Amino acid sequence: MVFPRDDDIRRREHQNPGDNVGLEAAQQQQADLMRQQQADAARQQQADAARQQQADAARQQQADAARQQQADAARQQQADAARQQQAVAAAAAPRYVQRVAVKLPAFWLDKPAIWFAQAEAQFALADITVELTKYYHVISQLDVRAASEVEDIISSPPGEFPYTNLRQRLIERLSTSEEHRVRQLLHDEELGDRKPSQFLRHLKSLAAPAVVQPNLLRHLWLRRLPTHVQTVLTARPELSLEQLSDLADKIVEISPVPSIRAVAENAEQVPAPNDSLATLIRELTFEVSALRTRRRERSPDQRSP
Fold this sequence. Notes:
Blueprint: H1 6-13, H2 17-92, H3 112-125, H4 131-141, H5 144-149, H6 151-155, H7 162-174, H8 178-188, H9 196-207, H10 214-223, H11 227-234, H12 241-254, H13 260-265, H14 275-303
C-alpha cells in the first residue's frame, strides 16, 4: 500500500476551495455538451428517417403512376382494337335493307331522345338490326324542320353506322340547351291545367340535364301552385316532394283550381274554398300549433344539464 506523502497531504489541505468548484463546473459543462450531442444525433436520425420515408413514398407514387399509365394504355389499345373490329365488320357486312314493316310514331321535335327510345323499341319488336334499315325508317318520319337540321347527313349518308350517326346528330341539334332549360324552369313554366304532380314531373324533366338542387326545385314548384294549396303544403315541411305532390292533387280535387280558359272567360269570378278544404286547413293549423307547443314544453328540459 502506498501512503500519500506528507507534502501531498499538506498541499491538499492548503489547496484553494475555488479550484474544486471550477472543476465541478467544467465536468458539468462537459456532461451537458455530451447530452446535447446525443439529442442532436437523435434528431438527425429522425430527420433522416423522415426523408427516407418521403423518398420511399415518392418512389411508390411514381411506380403507381407508371402502372396506371400502363393500364390506361392497355385499355385504350383494347378500345381501339374493338372499334377497328367494328369498322371492319361494318365494311364487310352487306349493305342491304331488311324488308320488315314497322310503324314509327310521328317525330317529336321537342323530345328527340324519347322518340328514338320508342323507335328502338319498335325496331326490337320487329327484329330490325341492320343500320341502313333503321336509317331509312327514321328518314321517312322526319318533317321539314327536323330534316333540315340533318340535311348534311341526308344528302350524304355516312358509309358506316348511318342510323347511329343520324340519331346522334338529331339529338344533339334538336335538344334544348341547358341554359334555355334553366331559364324556362326559373321564369317561364306555369301550372296551367295540369295536376300539381304532373307539373312537378314536368319541372323535373326540365331540371334533369342541369344541376338543380332538390330544395330549389321544391321552392319553384310550390311558388307556382295556387295560394290555398301553398298554405296547406308549407305547413307540412316533414313530407317529401313526392308526398307533397300527392297531397296537392287531393287538395285540388277537393277545391278545383279554375283552368286558364275559365279564368279568361270570367276573370272577376273568384271561387271560394269549400267546407272540406277549410276543415283540412283548420286541422293542419291545429296540428302545427300542437307541435310548436310540445317543442316549447320540451325546451327547458333540453337546456338543463
